[in-house]
Amino acid sequence: MPTATTSVSAADLHDPTSAAYKRARRRHLKVTRNRNQDAEADWTPFRAAEKRYKARFPPPDLSDVLDLATLDVSRSEETSRGRWRGRADAVACREIELNDCGDAGPLTSRKAYIFPDTPGLVLLPSFIDAEGQRQLVRWALCEQARHPNETNLDTHYVLPEVGIWNKYLDMLRELCEDEYIQPRASLHPNTSEPPVAEPQGSRRLISNEPASKCNYETLSSALKPPAAPSSSTQPIRVSALVPKLRWANIGWSYHWGTKQYDFCKGKGTISQEVRSVCKQAVRAVRWDRVFEDDKSSDGDWGEDGPDWGSWKEVYEPDAGIVNFYQTKDTLMAHVDRSEVCATSPLVSISLGCAAVFLIGGLTRDVKPTPILLRSGDAVIMSGPACRRAYHGVPRVLEGTLPPHLESGEDREWTVYAEYLRNTRININVRQVFPRGFDPIHSIQTEGKT
Ligand SMILES: O=C(O)CCC(=O)C(=O)O
Ligand SMILES: [Fe+2]
Question: What residues does the Fe2OG dioxygenase domain cover (predicted)?
């Protein structure tokens, strides 16, 4: 779930003679005058990397960031625009062939890359072709960021059932006005106290207990109160609310307050299109090659030992998050540990603007690998060394929207292109339970015995 930071000028900070550069330098010197050097010395390697790529001034040098798109001549227009470019040799990684799955689909690249420092991490550059990217963007905004799926906006606003994006499209088609969306707190005008007090100050970081087959029943029966709407939220026009969209839940419902799934809400669906893209990615990977040098012990894989041999058949995505990042947003280092399947693939698809993605190890003390993710790239996190590794997105890179998303065949794409100019979308899909496992039935049955 990306969090927003304050807005800074988007002007070009790479040119030391520009007014924007000089202004940013002055601001930087003022802000850092009293910086506590001792505190910086205490940063973990992950925190230090986050700070480095987040820095607005001086803009970070990306020459140590892996950027495999620079190897692909068909992407040269994309990689040569703007100032942000990494290097194809920045990080130790190895190319492996993909399986020939024989299914026509979005598979445009025949390459995958694996990382000796992070066994189980697989990068599939350009996995989704241009049309597939456009379809996924439409899918994310029109079909996912709407009722019954929960979005970050639902806590504070009374949203139209069609979702904020479809309402925005209606407004552009002049089917309705640029209406005011009312704050949710206005539904309870006589209640001075919100139902559940919101934490004061900055958002609390909740360290959740890793889910497993043994504790999921306790975790799922723990109270999951709805977040309280802010009483200071003001009415806002539809057009102004669109850029405030940050996430939408898909599949099993995720409760952000406890960072656990709320199984009692029942199983939401994940659309067939996205399931098939993710399954295709998992089926395309030669898992025997990915884990051939894996040094982890069988026990690290859980009680049944390594199960990658069956992923081609049994991998079944059942939960996920669609993240919407504006170019000033970041996603802090975290581990996705709410899923009972602790080693099954997590498939993550990047769309729109590019970003720096960091992936480290099981603690923040492991220096993370920086990877530049561009539109159409897919990442798979799997296995005991990677699936629960710390990772985050310290930087979304402005001016990196690829040409094929700037314009489309149809005029209707223009509104998407305009939105994407400052946006990155990430579709992050997980498998919570082993295939065939029905948690609701299982909880009820166990409760009776
Ligand atoms: O945006 C990304 O690439 C990663 C998102 C992520 O880690 C998450 O949603 O848990
Ligand atoms: Fe994550």
Answer: 316-433
